[in-house]
Amino acid sequence: MSRFDWAALLRCGVRQCGLRPAEFWVLTPVEFGVLIGADEAGPSMTRDGFAALMAAYPDAGTKGAGDG
């Protein structure tokens, strides 16, 4: 298992986002992601995209299929 690089995230928050360390540590992961642009990964999956995914990987024959 690899270690999570907290120091790199803190450097990013302080140097690139202009946060003070105390401000960095009270952010939620979602808030920090917004600050660094991680929320701009692209559009959400469309209904057609989801249908294609379900067709490619059907649940038929698995335990619990069709129960929910």
Structure description:
This protein is mainly alpha-helical and 68 residues long. The chain has one domain (6-56). The protein contains 4 helices and no strands. It has helices at residues 6-16, 21-26, 29-36, 47-56. The longest helix has 11 residues, at 6-16. It comes from Shimia haliotis. This is Phage tail assembly chaperone protein, TAC. InterPro entries: Phage_TAC_6.
Strand count, sense and barrel status of the largest sheet are: none
Q: Span from first to last CA? A: 35 Å
Topology order in helix (H) and strand (E) letters: HHHH
Number of helices: 4
- SS-based class: mainly alpha
Count structural domains: 1
Please give the share of residues in helix: 40-55%
Number of separate strands: 0
Shape designation? elongated
Q: Give the uncertain stretches in residue-range form.
A: none
Pfam family, one: Phage_TAC_6
Organism: Shimia haliotis
Protein name: Phage tail assembly chaperone protein, TAC
Features:
single chain, 68 residues, mainly alpha, 4 helices, elongated, Phage tail assembly chaperone protein, TAC, Phage_TAC_6
Short structural summary:
The protein has about 70 residues and is an all-alpha fold.
